[in-house]
Amino acid sequence: MQAVPSVFRSPFRKGLAAGFPFIVIIVPFGALFGVLAAEIGLPIAQIMGFSVLVIAGASQFTAVQLMADGVPAVVVVLSALAVNLRMVMYSAAMVPHLGSAPLWQRAIVSYLLVDQTYAISAEVFEEEPAWSVADKVAFFAGVAVPVFPGWVGATWAGAVLGAQVPEGWQLDFAMPLAFLALVGPMLKTRAHVAAAFVSVVAALLFAWVPWNLGLIIAACLALLTGAEVERRS
User: Fold this and answer.
1) Predicted confidence band at 29 (pLDDT cuts at 50, 70, 90)?
2) Which residues cross the membrane (predicted)?
């Protein structure tokens, strides 16, 4: 049997193949954000600025919902930052793999480091210990190619066409489904499981806190729990 050409087995192409399935989740997720942002009166430029500059669906939804409730700007910013604290852990986890890459490559990776690109890359990097830093950067880029345009394009479509989406279309399933698909396979250690458990319980216990500040409390408790379990083990 003829061998598969190396170009089809390259890290970049493997990244593309791994990233494309996320389109199924990203498109309704991004479209829903565009619809909700347009409904609260944000102009298209600000909506697209959210998705191009922030690139973090959960914090974007949090910010938009708080803005719709008339919450003070400082609370909106703090809540969005709390939701995005996971990005700090993502960055730390990527350092052993990509820390020696050229500065310009690390800058691009930092910009495109989101839930999808991190989850897939972290798993595959552990499975491919022989890969060079260049191979890992190429794989990460391959994953990001469908993810980033899909998110931005879906946001634009939702913002422009949101008024035409029938109310019976329950697009809000995309957000929890996306995180379940990402987080579930990553709960491999006691620290991961403990942090996830505490975050869920704390979010429910502090749901009564005004302005969704319970999310900040839950995020901090989960981080502390995960770090302590990791330290003890």
Assistant:
1) confident
2) 16-38, 44-64, 71-93, 137-162, 169-187, 193-224
